[in-house]
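Same chain as my last thread, 388 residues:
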Amino acid sequence: MTDALSIAQSLVRCPSVTPADAGALGVLETILKDAGFETHRVTFGEPGTADIDNLYARIGSEAPHITFAGHTDVVPAGDESAWTHGAFSGDVKDGMLYGRGAVDMKGGIACSVAAVLQYLKDHDGKPQKDGRGSISFLITGDEEDISVNGTIKLLQWVAARGEKFDHCVLGEPSNVEVLGDTIKVGRRGSQSGTLYVEGRQGHVAYPHRASNPVPDISRLIVAISDEPLDNGSAQFQASNLEFTSVDVGNTASNVIPGQARAKFNIRYNDLHTQQSLRDLVDARLAKACGNRIKAHIVWEPSNSNVFVTKPGAFTDLAVAAIEEVTGRKPELSTSGGTSDARFISSYCPVIEFGLVGQTMHAVDERTPVADLEMLTRVYRGILDRYFG
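reply #2:
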């Protein structure tokens, strides 16, 4: 089982809905151990969260060290009766591999493993003929959930062993329309908070005895969100602040509520740090409140910081490998939501390149077998250039 399709089918057939592993990491561990990798299964947990099993595998002990990262956990299948093929069947029909995780991202992991196995077979089982160089895999089981017992802790565990990464390829489904159109080289940060506006509860017939926070929170929402946070930067689109809910906890139509609150989320670029962003929004709130409105923001903890891998030798070799296989020169993009790359970026430059993401998380998630074969060749091209 060394080709991408066979590996992907074996992984898809493991119903590894977060936090269950369902044997997925065992599939990879067996394959990599047989290929000469030193493998480690590491479990992390903390109070109030599920224990998560993770896999780290490495061959070689010297620099340069490239790691392939990914996650074997998947989102729930939803209504399985709505699937054309079983959600965890791994069936192939009309050249398409079906199943939850086929795109996000068991297919990408399968391609990276297949490429590495092929590369090692052609190089006497060594990353480089002189014995230098290392290849590793960082595979986690909780990316689709709260991401506290997976990649972030596995990276810390590897660092505590004295190991360092030079570069990382994360196999998330980065492509938008066709394989080869997009490399993700960064992500905006994410910061959430709740705006609280204090009033004084009372009867609607006697408004002079109460203080209604509803008009006040409406004014504050406009004041905070109307003015742009920035106009974008060289690598990123503009930051945006979006209010997502407004609530007063009041079911009575004849009672003025005593408090109003509104949740919001900010996706921010590299013109801000987490703290400078909070300071900016807090300052806007204070100005809008003046001396009359009593309001404050409670900021949620966030580990989704902005990062970018700037163009250079590593992105150039990836672009060259992609263009050679697909005939397309990919866009270097920083769009989209968060991924485990936000953790990896603190340890080494990281790029995201995987399959086409159009059916991820959807019923009948699927990928063309031809894309699995092409992605394997892309990863092989990256390895050839990296160690060549």
